[in-house]
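Entry 14. Structure prediction run on the chain below.
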Amino acid sequence: MKNVYSLILILSVIGLAFSSCKKEDKKEEVVAAISLVANWKTATVNRELFFKNNTTGIKYPLAISDYVDHIKFNADGTGNMSVSGVVIRKFTYTFTNADIHFANVFSYNGKDWIHTDSFMFFINSFTGQEIVFTQNDYNYNHVVQNGKEYDQIVTNVKIVKEN
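Output returned:
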């Protein structure tokens, strides 16, 4: 009887080991299958302003020309953002299925490339042909809109892959 319990215990441990390996392999395949490498065109931009983490704020569409109209991700982890065909920002990036982290960001001011802060996009959905993400900005100097002060800007953006 003792041998039967030992055999059941050993088989259970082996079964758990194999089932957990399969789940990990599937997760790795999903992450590896997602690729940002492409030229992406901005489809929509909506912005929300909040003050001191209020749940209500001002929500309004933003003109694509006031944001960026194209984002290019290269296979080597570099990329750029442009408006009307003019590159206005260069960067390096890392990517998970939950966010895109931009580092070594240089912005063009019309004369020179100036090193600016890193930032992150939080991915809401990714279909392979379309990405919807959120960018959160917290300002030390408050933004004034319609006579009211705001300290948080939430930008929701949809970009689509160009053929």
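The radius of gyration is 23 Å.
Filed with the rest of this week's runs.
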